[in-house]
Amino acid sequence: MKIRIASSVALAAALALGATGCSLIAPQGTLEPYAPSDGRDVSTEHVDVRNIMLVADETGENFNVVFSAVNRSGSDQQLTINFVGEGSASASAEFDVPEGNTRFGNPEGEQTPVLVALPGVEVGSTVTAYFQVAGTPEVEYEIPVLDGTLAEYRDYVLPADFSDSKADKTDKADEATAADQEADQSHVAENEEGEPQ
Asked: Which domains does the chain show, CATH number per domain?
């Protein structure tokens, strides 16, 4: 009787060890760093790019470059991203990344969104992107292409005339600046004319 009990215990121990022993030698996926969203995380020498993705505009041919940047260098950095799409399609985008955390691609944010044109690239695919901070080696990653199908990305889908509206805003700002300068100059001239001789 004792032999049967001992055999049963030994068998149960062997089965338990066999079922759990894999975790002793197999890598655990939960310990690996990963992007918790649909984008990719990229690390360069001075700037960490978090959750980067391309979000198609209303035309489907231009893409908003959406990501967060963590500048760890202690000074402003320039980040260049070169995207390579289907065939010979390619586009380049440059970002001035201040110290600390900065979000890019949000139309309501402080940074003006940057659009890249990549004809022939389809939503749901990936494009090869080369990341480089000035003076450091280039790194290569595959970046996902999304659209506004998912509600959380709809705010990043820019209108087809976004570039035109951005240019209009810039022109109006330039006109306002020029008008202010003219008003200042005329005010100075009036003051000079009114001074006693």
From this structure: 31-176 (2.60.40)
